[in-house]
Design goal:
The structure is a single chain. This protein is of the alpha+beta class and 442 residues long. The chain folds into two domains: 10-163 and 333-395, 3-Layer(aba) Sandwich (D-Maltodextrin-Binding Protein, domain 2); 166-326 and 398-441, D-Maltodextrin-Binding Protein, domain 2. It contains 17 helices and 14 strands. The strands form four sheets. Strands 4, 7, 12, 13 and 14 form a five-stranded mixed sheet that branches. It has a four-stranded mixed sheet with strand order 9-10-8-11. A three-stranded mixed sheet has the order 1-3-2. A hairpin with a 2-residue loop joins strand 5 and strand 6 (153-154). The model is unreliable at 1-34 (pLDDT under 50).
Length: 442
């Protein structure tokens, strides 16, 4: 399920979408601003909890410095912004951009205003300072709807990002050199380091069980068969039974084979993704590596509060699968679009693109910002920033951008083949059928 109000991680999507919640950043409520105001700006976001608290910290200096009142509303309904657009009713001044299928239409109709307009003379600084993969069409073309570029213009202001496909390990257990290729990774003998198996994996996530496996296979396919095959697959133009996607499944199955995975496939299926890393730090290590995104250390610390990033645990980036595709990195990002061109909206967009604003996000922890020169208190995030900065393409998670029926079937198939690898051909055939129907009606 793709969230209309944010390009969310599978982890966030797995948490579900709730009801409308009004958050007042200052006195004055959360009604939409329908005039060209220089004193008030309305903002919608999908964030809650710690992410919302961090955003409120980001906004406070803006209000203190400008006197502009921010009317902040957390909207959990994934369709609300689209409903307002279709109905011609009022829109917030600023909110995240829409699902990728609506980006070109909304940009062409003028529903979203160009970032170039919002930032004015500071636009070139934004392009220079932001991770290139978030602002640049690598082929030199005019469109990249996944990062909000239409006709060479930008419609989504990138403020945060995360990197997936990282292999985490206990530094006191794995003392070897990070493998350069996926084959080298599979060839490591865990017993050499006193561990039981090569990998830990946890796929249980309630109704969204299976999404961690989709992250794993995505990282394989984009590096094995390239960004065009990968994005065409997301868009339903490449069948699941195609040689490229089947090979991705077969490679994924090596990670979760009884030979390589802690506890075997049944443990993989029953272990919550949040707890998958626990065996890394057990007295008798259950595994050497856990593949997961930059958010996973927060769960390490829930289980082992005394762990220190860079001292007790670290990561290496996803090893090369086919070297010509090494620049493809799996990640996600948070962004905002300007829907009403007002003086206050422009000022807030300009502020969110600055280092001081994004440094507050960085200091809050748990995320990378979009600015490539930001420094982090956590040494692991400084290294993750290097991965993001080296990316040629920051490719979104496939399932998050597929129709909902396709996403559900995709995740389910990964659970099924993990349990029974011999079912692969029949699972892929079923997925072809779902794909044909889902994309016809989406």
């Amino acid at each position: 399920m793709t969230d209309v109000l944010a390009k969310l991680s599978s982890r966030a999507i797995a948490g579900g979408l709730g009801v409308l919640l009004l958050i007042a950043c200052s006195s004055g409520g959360g009604t939409n601003n329908q005039t060209a105001s220089s004193t008030d700006v309305t903002v919608w976001t999908a964030w809650g909890g710690n992410e919302l608290a961090a955003f409120q910290k980001v906004l406070k200096p803006f209000h203190d410095q400008t006197g502009i009142t921010v009317h902040l509303t957390t909207v959990r309904d994934a369709n609300q912004l689209s409903i307002n657009v279709d109905a011609g009713t009022s829109l917030p001044d600023i909110a995240p951009g829409p699902t990728v299928d609506k980006v070109k239409d909304w940009a062409t109709k003028g529903t979203m205003k160009p970032v170039e307009t919002a930032l004015g003379s500071s636009f070139n600084d934004y392009i220079t300072n932001t991770y290139p993969a978030l602002t640049t069409v690598p082929s030199g073309g005019g469109d990249n709807l996944y990062i909000g570029i239409v006709g060479g213009k930008h419609y989504e202001l990138m403020v945060k990002t995360q990197v997936k496909g990282l292999f985490w390990y206990n530094k006191k257990v794995f003392t070897g050199t990070a493998p350069k290729t996926f084959d080298e990774l599979l060839a490591i003998n865990p017993s050499q380091y006193g561990a039981d198996k090569l990998f830990c994996v946890g796929l249980e996530s309630g109704g969204a069980s299976g999404w961690p496996a989709s992250d794993q296979i995505d990282n394989i396919i984009m590096r094995q068969s390239g960004d065009k095959v990968y994005t065409d697959w997301i868009q339903g133009k490449v069948k699941f039974s195609s040689p490229q996607i089947k090979l991705g499944y077969q490679t994924y199955l090596k990670e979760v084979s009884a030979q390589n995975v802690y506890g075997g496939p049944n443990t993989v299926l029953s272990t919550a993704f949040q707890r998958a890393g626990k065996p890394l730090f057990a007295a008798k290590p259950g595994c050497l590596f856990l593949e997961q995104a930059t958010f996973i250390p927060s769960f390490f610390l829930e289980d082992y509060p005394n762990l220190k990033a860079g001292v007790d645990f670290d990561f290496f980036g996803h090893p090369s699968v086919a070297s010509q595709y090494d620049g493809n990195v799996n990640g996600f990002y948070d962004q905002f679009a300007m829907y009403n061109d007002t003086p206050a909206a422009r000022k807030l967009m300009q502020y969110m693109a600055t280092s001081p604003a994004q440094q507050i996000w960085a200091d809050a922890g748990g995320t990378l910002t979009a600015i490539k020169t930001i420094k982090y208190n956590d040494p692991v995030f400084n290294r993750a920033a290097e991965v993001a900065n080296s990316a040629k393409n920051l490719l979104v998670t496939a399932g998050d951008f597929m129709p909902s029926d396709m996403q559900a079937a995709f995740w389910k198939s990964l659970l099924n083949v993990t349990k029974n690898p011999s079912s692969l051909d029949s699972e892929l055939a079923k997925l072809d059928q779902v794909q044909a129907a889902a994309y016809k009606t989406s």
